[in-house]
Every structure is written in C-alpha cells, then in structure tokens.
Amino acid sequence: MKQNKFYFVVGSQHLYGPETLQMVDADAKTMVDGFNADANIPCEIVFLPCVKTSSEIADVMNKANNDSACAGVICWMHTFSPSKMWIKGLSMLQKPYLHLNTQFNRDIPWSTIDMDFMNLNQSAHGDREHGYITARLNKARKVIAGHWENADFRKEIGVWMRAAVGYKESQSLRCLRISDNMRSVAVTDGDKVEAQYRLGWEIEHYGVGDIINYVEQVTEAEIDTQIEEYKKYYTFATDNMDAVRYQAREEIAVKRFMDERGFTAFHTNFEDLQGLRQLPGLASQDLMRLGYGFGAEGDWKVAAMTRILKAMTADLNGGTAFMEDYTYHFEPGNEMIMGAHMLEVCPTIAQTKPEIQVHPLGIGGREDPARLVFKAKPGAAIVVSLVDMGTHLRMIVNDIECVEQINDMPKLPVSGVLWKPMPNLKTSAEAWIYAGGAHHSVLSYDVTAEMMRDFAEMAGIEFVHINKDTKIADFRRELQYNAVIFGRG
Predict the structure, then answer these.
(1) Residue 468 burial (CB < 10 Å; 0-12/13-18/19+)?
(2) How far apart are the C-alpha atoms of 290 and 306, rounded to whole Å?
(3) Alpha carbons 258 and 73: distance in angstroms, whole number
C-alpha cells in the first residue's frame, strides 16, 4: 500500500504576501506529517509547495497524471484561491480527486483573532469557492469536511484512499481468460470493450492448450518446493499426494504464465479442460492467497473484481474471496445464506488452518481434485457483484454479517461461509434479484460499501447498496432513477 502516493495540493494566491505563503507551506507540511504518522492513512501523502497560479496548478496536475505511483490528488484551500485559476488543471486531471474542507486551527482564537489571522486562515470560504468550480466542471470528486486532526476525518480519507488504490489497480489490470465462459450462462459474460473503456481492464483469451504446455514444463523439484510452501499454510488431510502434486504443478504453470504476461487475475472453465488431469482447485485457492484474482466458469468480471478488492486491502488481514451463493437456510428468525464453491474459495477468510483434502468432483470429468476445505470466520463483511446491463455497468453491494458455522457437512467437502444478509434474507434476495446481481460475487471482511461507492464514482459506473435500511419499494425506485441517469430511461 505504501507504494501508492497521493499528492497534497494546497491552494492560495499571491495577494497575501510571502510571509503568509510561507505559513501556508509550513502548516501544510505539518498536516502531511500528521497524516503520514497515522495508521488510518494507508498510503503515503506527498507534500507539495502551495499553488498560486493557473500554470502552477496545471503543472502539478500534469505531474500527477504522469506519475505512475500517484493514485490520486488531495486538495485543500488554506486561503482563498480564486477558482478560475483551477479550471485548466482540473480539466486535465485524470486521477481520483479528494477535496478536504478543513482548516489548520481547530478553534477560533477569540482573544487574538485579527485580519492577519483571517488572511492566512480562509478555508471556510476558500473551500466553498473551490467547491463551486468543481461542481461547475462536473468534476468527479469526494468531499470530506471536518478538522484534519480528527480521527473520524482521517478514517474517511483512508477509505477514499483504498478506493483510489483499487481504481489505480483497475487501470492496469490484465485478466487471463483460460477458455471461454460456461456455455449459455448470461451473467458471467459481458462487454469486454466497455469494461476496458470504463475500468481499464485488458481481458485476453488463451486456449487451455497454452496452459497445458506450461504444465508439462514444470519440474519435480519445483513441485517439491511448492509442496513445502503448502505445508506452511495448510494441514495435509489426505494420503493422495499425487493429486496434491498435480495441483502444485498447475499452480506453478498458471502463475508463471500470468507473471510472464503481466496478468493479475484469471478464470478457468470446468467445461473445457482438454488435457488437464484436474480442474484447478487448490491451485486457484493458493493463487488467491497470493493476491491474484480468480473467477470460476469463465467469469472474468468477478476475477478482476477479486483482484481489485485484494489490492485495496493489501495491508489488511480480514480476507477477500471469490464467492457464490450456494444455498439458503430458511429457519424462521434465523435466515441465512451459505456461500461456497465446488473448489475455489480463497483461504484468507478461513477461521482455522485450512485442510488439503482430495474428493471426487461430480462435474468436469477428470481426476479427483485436491482442494482446501475450511469454515469461514465470523464478522462484518460485504459481497460485491458487477454486472453488465447492456447500456452500462452496475455494481451491487450487500452488507452482511458472517456467522460461525457450527454444523459440519461431511458429504459436502467445500470451503464455505455462512452469512446473514442485511436487512434480512427476504429483502436482500429480492433487491439483489431486482438489480440483476450475479450468483458469483466477491466477499470481503476488509472492504466497505463506502469504498466501493467511491470506486464506482471514480469509474463512472452505477452503484446500488443493499443495507440495514433497504426497503424494496425505495430500492426499486432508485433503480428506475438510475436507469434514467445511465441511459435506459
């Protein structure tokens, strides 16, 4: 996370004289140092001297655009900065934009306040002047108001930062399609041109034979090394080491194939395995542990989103995983969803050390695959779905509460998570279906709905949120309004 930088751009003007400008820079430097020392701020904030003219503003925005490490720009008006000066720079800025409405001092210095103080501390109306020009330019941005030393204020900055890191990751994301998507399935497919235009994703197809060539080149020594790696993270609960070693072979091959071509996400398809002896199970799960995005059955959208959410929370350990709504539990007063998949759920969400097991798989027509089996930990989380509505992309987020799974499933050896969707199963399921949410999603204990809202606004895509306050009539009305906004009215 610390490799991502954010420029701190403070606005002023020459009207107030050099001494005031020196104080502006000194105050801004103090603020940046305070931010960077705070654990709520996950990325580095870079101090820059205050900008005072249109050309200075344009130069710093151009520098931000061309700095590959820069994930966004944070602006604050310490003094009054006439906003016509910002038109050129804001018009050319291509990075996420955060406007802080704060001031250096917390309290009014009642006994000493004078015009010298007011010349220096004009955020109350300087930020409103700036707010006008961003609104006039229809500039996508986040606005956070409050005092810069306040913990909640800084947490809000951190939330926006993580969204910006996800957006930065999105702009360079390359997703490997191993075969196509599952035949006749609609929601896992979509417009790849639109996804690249809106989100920056490069989605490229390779045949299964290309992967098989890499599988065949993996050496026994490399497999031995991978097995030792498995021993660090997982418990071996099988005697079928041949199956485990083949998964290690697949993981090494897929990882090498991706790394050589710059891919950070991938999908498989059980309908098209050709010469592969097993559907990648343990292989896919361990690659997700390493941070790669994954989607099953050709779902490239969920593969890419898994990678993005992992990038947004790379310094956290709550866990993010590819997920599927598996089955409902309709016990009155205790309604829940069990999420799982036949093989591929990321072990970062496990409550205890996952076990490597080998069991038959009823689909795919190949050898019994090795996979990780575990129960997920309890805690607050979200599930995220990205769907293609034909005219635009829609992101659907549901707040959930993962609960401890006390029951065993001896005849269903999968990695699973049990959750209570907000506000309840009936409303959540109806809203999800009205919105066209997919059966595949990304589950994360670290990412919040607010982060995903910020990400969606950066990308210019629709966002809907199913939460504790959701009511179906209001939710359906929101979808109707959004249809007008995004071109389906």
Answers:
(1) exposed
(2) 12
(3) 31
d(CA 298, CA 205): 10
Counts for the chain of helices (H) and strands (E), in that order: 15, 19
Give the CB-side neighbour count of residue 195, counting CA atoms within 13 A. 25
Structure tokens at 404: 């401890």
Element (H, E) at 233: helix 220-233
Contacts of 323 (CB under 8 A, 6+ apart): 339, 340, 341, 345, 383, 417, 440, 441, 442, 443
| pLDDT at residue 488 in the model | 59
Phi and psi angles of residue 20, each rounded to the nearest 5 degrees, phi first? -65, -40
Residue 312 confidence (pLDDT): 97
How far from the centroid of its chain's Cα atoms is residue 58's Cα?
A: 29
From CA 163, how far away is CA 308, in angstroms rounded? Answer: 9
Structure tokens at 65: 């655009």
* pLDDT averaged per 10 residues in sequence order, the chain, 489 residues: 96 93 97 98 98 98 98 97 97 98 96 92 94 97 98 98 98 97 94 96 97 98 98 98 98 98 97 96 98 98 98 96 97 97 96 97 92 98 97 97 96 97 98 98 98 97 98 98 81
Task: Enter the pTM of the model.
Answer: 0.96
Inter-axis angle of helices 151-171 and 449-459, nearest 10: 50
Confirm if 299 and 311 have CB atoms less than 8 A apart. Answer: no
Return the H-helix or E-strand segment holding 198.
Answer: helix 192-199
Asked whether 301 and 295 are in contact (CB, 8 A), the reply is: yes
Within the chain, what is the greatest distance between any pair of CA atoms? 82
Token pair belonging to 110? 């009642």
Q: What is the token pair recorded at 1?
A: 């996370």
The residue whose two tokens read 């097995």 is 227
Which of 138, 14, 135, 148 has its CA nearest to residue 79? 14
Q: What is the reported pLDDT for 265?
A: 98
Distance CA 398, CA 281 (A): 27
pLDDT at 294: 98
What pLDDT does residue 487 have?
74
Distances (CA, A) of 285 to 235, 304, 321: 14, 15, 9
Would you list the DSSP string of 431-480?
A: HHHHHT--SEEEEESS--HHHHHHHHHHHT-EEEEE-TT--HHHHHHHHH
Are 345 and 322 in contact by the 8 Å Cβ rule? The answer is yes
Residue 230 and residue 238: Cα distance in Å, rounded? Answer: 13
Tell me, what amino acid is at 296? A
Tokens of 186: 């609609």
Q: Output the DSSP codes for 110-121.
A: TTT--HHHHHH-
d(CA 356, CA 368): 13
287: its two tokens? 């690659």
